[in-house]
Design goal:
Length: about 300
């Protein structure tokens, strides 16, 4: 496109130069005529010549302006050629960079494929090395775990203040249930709530009830001395003891050390006890007495 424009400019330049030569020749002719008219003293013809001379001068200036514009176009052409060259260089660099990036990703993908193949081969070897009895034991262990009957008991007040004091956040009770239960069978999931007069927990309780929890609630009681009473320690203990015959695993979501005696008693009855709570708010004795302690971290908060 640039070549075509340049050819057109060249033709126009030649035509303008030709017109200028013609105009200059005509100007000379008119000057001779003017001198003749002056010599003859014909004033009317002189005025006519002056008008023609002005007209010729205007056309000459217009032609010169055309030449000037043509020169500017030549300058613009040079600028465009420089910019075009820069664009071509940038494009070449981009092509090189893109090719290198693709090659890098292809190498990474190939490496992952090789590692996956090695891991799969190693797994097959280990499976072949297992004796039939080991395979059967593994299968029975998995089936046994899936058949475990689990009871989940959540001290909501304990969880609430532990999350608020350390993280200024709230516990995600859906994630909690998924994490601690896994593939096991949930026989009961009970959330114990203490309702305070100044806080409406209707929506929260409804949320729990619609997401796998049975909610037990009581109102905060004020004593005559001004202190308040509203924990569920005794209620949780009674519920756990009453359900022992129907459960294989007790999951206690609380860090309260008052449950240590309960944990010991439940374990003596042959039931597994797992405690899930915030480490900073959990009794060390409770962590040690439980069969397993699951710490709650920031990923369980909302």
């Amino acid at each position: 496109m640039l070549k075509k424009s340049c050819s057109q400019f060249a033709r126009e330049k030649g035509e303008l130069r030709h017109q200028i030569k013609q105009l200059e020749a005509e100007n000379l002719r008119l000057r001779r005529v003017k001198r003749e008219v002056n010599n003859n003293g014909k004033e009317s013809n002189q005025h006519q010549l002056e008008r023609e001379n002005k007209k010729l001068k205007y056309e000459l200036e217009k032609a010169l302006q055309g030449l000037t514009e043509l020169g500017e176009l030549k300058i613009d052409k040079a600028k465009l050629e420089v910019e075009l060259k820069s664009i071509e260089e940038d494009f070449q660099e981009y092509k090189i960079a893109t090719a290198e990036e693709i090659e890098s990703w292809q190498k990474k993908l190939q490496k992952l494929r090789e590692e996956s193949a090695l891991a799969l081969e190693s797994a097959h070897k280990k499976i072949k090395e297992l004796t039939p009895s080991q395979v059967e034991d593994t299968s029975q262990h998995n089936d046994s775990e899936k058949q475990q009957r689990v009871g989940v008991f959540v001290d909501v007040q304990n969880m609430f203040y532990a999350a608020k004091d350390r993280y200024n956040a709230r516990l995600d009770y859906l994630k909690l249930l998924d994490m601690i239960v896994g593939d096991r069978t949930v026989v009961a999931a009970v959330a114990y709530v203490v309702q305070m007069p100044e806080v409406d927990q209707t929506a929260f309780i409804s949320f729990l009830e619609h997401n796998g929890y049975h909610v037990k609630s009581k109102e905060l009681r004020m004593r005559l001395d001004g202190s308040a009473k509203g924990d569920w320690d005794m209620g949780i203990a009674i519920d756990i003891i009453s359900m022992l015959d129907d459960l294989d695993v007790i999951i206690l979501a609380s860090g309260d050390g008052d449950f240590c005696a309960l944990v010991e008693m439940v374990k003596k009855k042959g039931c597994r006890v797992e405690v899930v709570a915030f480490p900073h708010n959990t009794s060390i004795d409770l962590q040690q007495k439980a069969d397993e302690f699951f710490p709650i971290g920031g990923d369980m908060l909302i």
